[in-house]
Amino acid sequence: MTGKIKYNFSEKVWQYSSPGGWYFVSLPENIVKEIRETLKSEEEGWGRLKAEAEIGKSHWKTAIWFDTKRNTYLLPLKADIRKKENIEAGTIVDVIVSL
């Protein structure tokens, strides 16, 4: 993750309220504000920004999306990451996101 902007934070995992809904971590307000001020021009469709993420020993390429309803970026957590790191809805995770 050399040469990228890194953001470290701890947040609670939540699940989208639909059958089989995705799991997410919402980025903290102060980080969202900084990203919107500095990287908004880099966003692709639907407010997508390419990213890399780390939780525990897991590291993966992903993207974050800006959610206009929640006014935050969302980091999706794939099932294999949740399984490897023993993550459920309500778990507080330490996250590193690099953009």
Overall description:
- The chain is α+β, with helices and mostly antiparallel strands.
- The chain has one domain: AF2212/PG0164-like (Elongation Factor Tu (Ef-tu), domain 3, Beta Barrel), CATH 2.40.30.
- The protein contains two helices and six strands, in the order ββαβββαβ.
- It has helices at residues 29-39, 79-85, and strands at 6-15, 23-26, 48-55, 58-67, 72-77, 92-98.
- It has a six-stranded antiparallel β-barrel.
- Strand 4 and strand 5 form a beta hairpin.
- It is globular, with a radius of gyration of 13 Å.
Q: What is the molecular shape?
A: globular
Low-confidence parts: none
- Please report the total strand number as a whole number: 6
Question: Which class best fits the helix and strand makeup?
Answer: alpha+beta
In DSSP terms (H or I, runs of 4 or more residues), the helix count works out at: 2
CATH superfamily: AF2212/PG0164-like
**What is the gyration radius calculated from CA atoms?**
13 Å
CATH topology: Elongation Factor Tu (Ef-tu), domain 3
Mean residue pLDDT: 93
Arrangement of strands in the largest sheet: 1-2-5-4-3-6
How far is the first residue's CA from the last residue's CA? 9 Å
Structurally, how many domains make up the residues?
A: 1
Return the CATH class: Mainly Beta
Tell me which CATH architecture applies here. Beta Barrel
Task: Bin the strand percentage.
Answer: over 45%
Question: How much helicity do the residues have?
Answer: 10-25%
Largest sheet, in brief, is:
6 strands, antiparallel, barrel
Summarize the helix and strand pattern as letters. EEHEEEHE
